[in-house]
Amino acid sequence: FARGGSMSTSSGPPSLSSSSTDEQKEDPSVKLSEVVMLRVFSFLNYGQLLFARLVCTKWRRLGEHSALYKGITMQDFLQYSRIIPMHYVRDYVYHLGINQEELKALRQCCREMPIYNGEPGGPYITLAPSGKQSEMRSPQAREGDKEQARREKVKHDREKKLMELKKIWVEEILPGAEKEKKKIVNSKRLHELCIQGIPGPVRPRAWPLLIGNDLRITPELFSILLTRAGRAKRQGEGQALGREGSVQLIHLDLPRTFPMLSIFQKGGPCHQNLANVLEAYACYRPDVGYVQGMSYVAAVLLLNLDEYEAFVGLSNLLNNPCYMGFFQMNMIEINKYMRVMDLLIKDYLPKLHRHLTSLGVEPNIYMIDWVLTIFSKALPLDTATRIWDSVFLEGELFIFQTALGVLKMFSARIEASDFDETMTLLTHLPPGVDEGELFDAIMSVTVTPKVFQKLYSG
Hints:
The protein is 60% helix and 0% strand. It has helices at 2-5, 20-26, 34-41, 46-55, 74-80, 86-95, 100-109, 139-143, 145-180, 188-195, 203-211, 219-235, 247-253, 271-284, 294-302, 307-318, 321-327, 331-348, 350-359, 364-373, 381-394, 397-409, 411-415, 419-427, 435-443, 449-457. Helix 12 (219-235) packs across helix 14 (271-284).
């Protein structure tokens, strides 16, 4: 793999038409037997398998062997659905036994899921166990083949870019930060890297370093807080300290947290982890307690971090004055930030601002939910987590810049809409948000810290 891996810096994957001699010069794995290579591949994760399929010329097809993709879990699906061979993704979803509406909901979490090709409201496309679509394809689906091909190319280019980014993070950024055990400090290079998105396999190492642990939370403190949470649940709200009693409300809210993801539902593998993180936080900050919307933030952290690190991340993230103001429902602070958003729209999107003002649609109608959940409820999860990469580095400013990008992306549609249509759009963003288009819009409305602070203080 060492020699084969060097090919990833070339202009593209090796050609299948290469001669046997050329293959042996570039890829020494061709000398190994199929049995040996299959065993080697069995030790790789899905991201590494993609790399192997790209650089090991002879074994490209072996890298899609069914034995390598047994036991796909929901977490694997969410993290790797972009790179797992499409027919295995289809098989997995088919055997979940979900209906059309559940499939649509799952697609909202994973924008690149290559299964549902019908137009919104169109017919459900049946999937056979073999992973092949049935012949009952709608005319709309057939007409969408060109668009699907475009999406596949974008997906392939994105995969290639993520492999390059992973190498930079693993070899250049993380080793020094992990050695010094210090929070990663913002810089021009890190800004560019986070905007491009941190590769999923890297986030478990990168996110804790981006968030930091200024609160100096330890595993021992986390354990103590879980014990206190258990006591608070037994005592009830009347006897608990501050809002510690709000732990009683957590189990009522969990089923509403990413309801399309079984891992957070009762009996799911992450249900208790999510409850533990939220209950510990309610006892850590009894002045705040548990607030609706907090479960989405904790759930996204748990999709990328273990239970303890997710608690550290949640506690340090919400310690930010902006988030604390929102979760404490401090209306003075919230109104300040809503004024900032209104002024940003007026400065960057004046035509849209006039239209929204004429309709009486104010930022608090849609922004409060976007801030509380950091877009994890409003956008597909893979898009939202890419936004989180930059939020961890740049703070709440990037949430407002993202909000501007969303408004710019849908500005033409909003300007042609009445009050009801605008309200529906802004409170329920379309599921098929194009990630590339959204980030182009976000970067076209760059807000500097100086401008943001001036508007907040004004």
